[in-house]
Amino acid sequence: MAYKIKLPIFEGPFDLLIYLIRKNEVDIYDIPIAEITHQYLEYVELMTMLDLDIAGEFIEMVATLMLIKVRMLLPQPEAEGDEEIEDPRAKLVAQLIEYQQFKDAAGSFGDLEEEQRRYYARRIPRQVTEVQSSEEDELLNDVSLFDLLTAFKMALDNMPKVTVHKVNVIKVTIQHQVEYIFKKMENRPYALFREVTQSIKSKIELIVTFMAVLDLIRLHFMAAKQSDVFGEIRLIPTQELDMRKYLEIRDEELRSQPETEIPPEE
Q: Do β-strands 191-192 and 222-226 pair in parallel, antiparallel, or remain unpaired?
């Protein structure tokens, strides 16, 4: 049975759109729809390449962006009198602003919850305290899936370009790359994502390594952090990076996965 990563993606299509607007430092009221649509498609293609379970809303957003792009390319009718011609982007902008307002409100509740936690002691494993002690004085923020995808895309773009293609069978698994990541991070408080991927020379190895990173984050073996917005991503161990423990959790998931039923032959 194959081991398939089921990553819980809490970010949706509006989150990706807001992420791209901020990344490109553009005015939300004046979105360069052609460039944003192009970049949006790139991220959807990356998620498809990695076999992430993306919802249909991402595809629906692509259709919305394409429709707006077409409307902006069409000749605009002349306004009569004081009548204003509606910007094709206006409805989407209103939805984005409303979505961000609700997200900010939800974030404020999260801040209150975090503040309340400070009043109750929580035991932390000794090895976690030792690993993260050097980061206590530094402000680090959690990264989103899109931050990770950006780092992955940069690693893909920086790979050497192959002019002559030679077919080689490359046997690489998530388990192999988890071992590789553990060795890279051995006796270190953290490792930059760039450091983990820069020595990889083949596309398939890079893809599987990225999937291994996602799996380790999902299983709480490490966290992905940034010291500033769109900065370099740090992979920080949150518990002992023990291969035996990882395999135990992985095997337990494999046993819990329902077996695919083979339809009877007619």
A: unpaired
